[in-house]
Amino acid sequence: MKGIDISKWNIVTDFKKVKEAGYDFVIIRAVGSNGSTPYKDKKFDMFYDQAVKAGLHVGSYAYVKPSYNGDVVAEANKTALFFLDVIKDKKFDMPVYIDVEGWNKKLKQDNTLYTVSFCGTCESKKYYTGIYGSDVSTFIDLLDKSFLLPFTWWVAKYSTQPPKHATENCHMWQFTSKGSIPGVKGNVDLDQCEFPFPAIIKKKGLNNYDR
Questions:
Q1: Which residues are CB-contacts of 82 (< 8 A; sequence separation ≥ 6)?
Q2: Is 60 helix (H, G, I), strand (E, B) or coil?
Q3: For the purposes of burial, counting CB atoms within 10 Å of the CB of 180, is it exposed (0-12), middle (13-18) or buried (19 or more)?
Q4: Between 20 and 30 A from 159 (CA), which of 69, 179, 182, 190?
Q5: pLDDT classification of 210: cutoffs 50, 70, 90
Q6: Coil, helix or strand for 59?
């Protein structure tokens, strides 16, 4: 499957054209972060409704950051619940992800605890949950990937060759941030996924498909 990922920074003029151009899915940012304070992406609802109407498979992600002030596990749980509240009325046949970028590399243990707590909270609410980050600077430098195996990985490596380091549980590859496709004005992230997420999610009744 070919896909794109978008946030409020993208200008999508026609999701139908995206679909007609051969793209199968879109991962939409639901939550951004002002420092360590999460907020709802202002285009999330609009993008979701239009993507579903166009017949695209849909997932979502939260771009968040730890404050490194106090209990990182409790903080991650609170932030995950905020994310889940934003997406609670929508169905997703692609996973929901935590976007791990730009964190403090010197605090690898805290980063890993935060990430695992966030994902665990989402999974406890019956969401198929994953982690987004770059091949080296996230999964090697920022996190201890040995603790991340229970979750699917969406790995960024801008190259014609797939990820080489974060491979153990990589089911989706973001290969460029400068894609140009019909229906989107300007550059857009492009992704490749060969894993049957929609069938699995629907069969297991995850991501609100049990409702």
A1: 31, 38
A2: strand
A3: exposed
A4: 182
A5: confident
A6: strand
Residues paired with 84 in a beta bridge: none
* CA 17 – CA 15 distance, rounded (Å): 5
Question: Model confidence over 192-201: pLDDT tens digits?
Answer: 999 999 999 9
The span from the CA of 82 to the CA of 40, in Å, is: 9
Residue the block writes with tokens 């730890």: 66
Question: Which residue, 64, 56, 71, 62, is CA-closest to 1?
Answer: 56
Which pLDDT value is given to residue 136? Answer: 96
Contacts of 130 (CB under 8 A, 6+ apart): 95, 96, 97, 98, 119, 151, 152, 153, 154, 171, 172
- Strand, coil or helix: 75: helix
Beta-bridged to residue 57, according to DSSP, are 25
CB 190 within 8 A of CB 4: yes
Q: What is the separation, in whole angstroms, between the first and last Cα of the chain?
A: 26
Query: Over the chain, what is the mean pLDDT?
Result: 97
- pLDDT score of 200: 97
Q: Which residues of 131-164 are buried (b: 16+ CB within 10 A; e: fewer)?
A: bbbbbbbbbeebbebeebeebbbbbbbeeeeebe
Q: How far is CA 30 from the centre of its chain?
A: 9
